[in-house]
Design a protein that fits this description.
Blueprint: H1 2-48, H2 52-58, H3 60-81, H4 86-97, H5 100-108, H6 114-135, H7 137-141, H8 145-163
């Protein structure tokens, strides 16, 4: 019994890193949704004279892409800060945003209402991210805080060499 628990320890560590990464991404996405969402709402008031709720009624495509932007940009920046390559960041951004395209198509043909686009977007985004994370399980199960630190140090050194 003791031998089996000793052998399982590395797997628990990988699962912990995987879940921590998912949790961090969700928190950063929620923060982006709140902070950038408020900015989007203010911009919508300036441009169209109505608030964020009206955007989902009157400008569904703009609101859907606005929501995707508000959640994707902070998440991608956080991933890169934590040491992931731009390639992996781009994959995650695509996984987050591709589900909105069929939803918009269904909206345009009248199969779902405007509220269905937002609901579907929120329901499909996290599972799409998890599927990508499972596909790249080794990437997302590894610790990245050290890699991010080394990446920042390398970036700083490159920036300093360009100044000379």
């Amino acid at each position: 019994m003791e031998t089996q628990s000793v052998l399982d320890r590395p797997q628990r560590g990988k699962a912990r890193h995987f879940l921590r990464h998912l949790f961090e991404m969700i928190v950063v996405m929620m923060l982006g949704m709140c902070v950038l969402g408020a900015a989007f709402g203010g911009l919508h008031v300036l441009v169209f004279g109505s608030g964020y709720a009206a955007a989902w009624r009157d400008h569904v495509v703009l609101a859907a892409f606005g929501m995707a932007f508000n959640m994707t940009v902070p998440m991608v920046l956080w991933m890169h800060y934590r040491g992931h390559s731009w390639e992996r960041c781009g994959e995650m951004a695509a996984a987050m945003n591709l589900p909105v395209l069929p939803l918009l198509l269904l909206y345009w043909i009248g199969a779902i209402p405007a509220r269905g686009v937002l609901g579907g977007q929120m329901m499909l985004m996290i599972p799409a991210m998890v599927l990508l994370m499972l596909y790249r399980k080794e990437e997302y199960s590894a610790p990245h805080h050290r890699a991010g630190h080394l990446h920042r140090r390398r970036w700083f050194a490159e920036a300093q060499s360009l100044r000379r």
